[in-house]
Task: structure prediction
Amino acid sequence: MNIMVVGGGGREHAIIRKLKENKDVETIYALPGNGGIAKDAQCVGISATDIEGITAFAKEHAIDYAVVAPDDPLVLGCVDALNAIGIPCFGPEAKAAIIEGSKVFSKNLMKKYQIPTAAYETFSDMDAALAYLEDAPMPTVIKADGLALGKGVIIAGTREEAREAVKEMMADKKFGKSGENIVIEEFLTGPEVSVLSFTDGKTVVPMISSMDHKRAGDNDTGLNTGGMGTIAPNPYYTPEVAERCMKEIFLPTIHAMNEEGRTFKGCLYFGLMITPDGPKVIEYNCRFGDPETQVVLPLLESDLLTIMQATTNGTLAQTQVRFSDRHACCVIMASEGYPVSYEKGYEITIPEETWDRVYVAGARLEGGRLLTSGGRVLGVTAVEDSLEEAIRSSYEAVRTISFGNAYYRTDIGNKALECVRR
Ligand code: AMP
Ligand code: GLY
Result:
């Protein structure tokens, strides 16, 4: 089989490694992939948002199955375009990807179908938003409606900060069209859990739970990033919480999307907060999380391609999805200065024996050398019998890798360890 994976980060690298385990897979193309992915797939210089280029490539290369991994091509209708030329895909159509593409849509969906989430108001008029803030309890959370590279969420501690955030989004258009509409919502507290799930629109199969570490600095300080490390499973996600999530959140969401004529197929990501009032949805993503995928897929024992095809064919209920009972930790190595500004172009050295634990996010090949080319450069995942060992083993591997201006958090997994030890 010829497989095409759209995207070029650490998440796509982890997906490609797993797909390669299937014996029927002959060639995997990555569009565009990156210098590290090039070790595992044929990288093609077509951008993940070039829908025309992607469909033309798929037609020319007899692609049997396509995996569309990032949010932007999904929201732009990449799956619709590939389906239109007869290529089966993993991922939702645009009308279902809106669950991530518009926060106004997802908040209204949750309200209509009584899915637990933070209380909120939506605004398309700045003066109305500013007036609302006058009496709103602080802290409050301001979210741009559309995709904003994970940066469109501001937690405002004071009224002044909240006003500033609203003005930045609505008047200064910091996030372009994404900020034309905004959501202002209640600030929730509690541990966060990411649950990725497979769904064919009828059955929903949660994957093993995980915990992201979004802030740039140790002890959750500094700016929000795309994610600086993950662990799985997440100890806060107890069997009782999982049962409530299935009943109150996962099944109702699949049902709600069907009712709206927006059947979701692919990976639906539930960003949850376990609040004192029970689990609530912080956000939906229409795709695998990054870097959650880098700890979840290494623990998957069943065949990924078979499961993906089952989400497309509607046969997920008859398909085995089994996870290992071991533990995984992924530490992201970034360029110092990320997520603001950073230098790139430094050579990366990775010992041969560490390679199979490395998922490359931001690197390019030049004359056979691997050079840094992004903020998040790579992730190192270790799988061990306990969380403690997974953390230690992943940091051990991190210390064998070097590149100029390398930066990583030193406390990935500590919060989860506290929970385990309680
Ligand atoms: P998001 O991009 O929606 O995942 O938001 C980024 C981060 O902001 C989340 O991981 C949470 O830590 C935080 N966050 C988002 N919404 C809320 C909320 N209503 N209350 C508290 N924290 C939030
Ligand atoms: N790690 C969070 C995300 O993929 O959006």
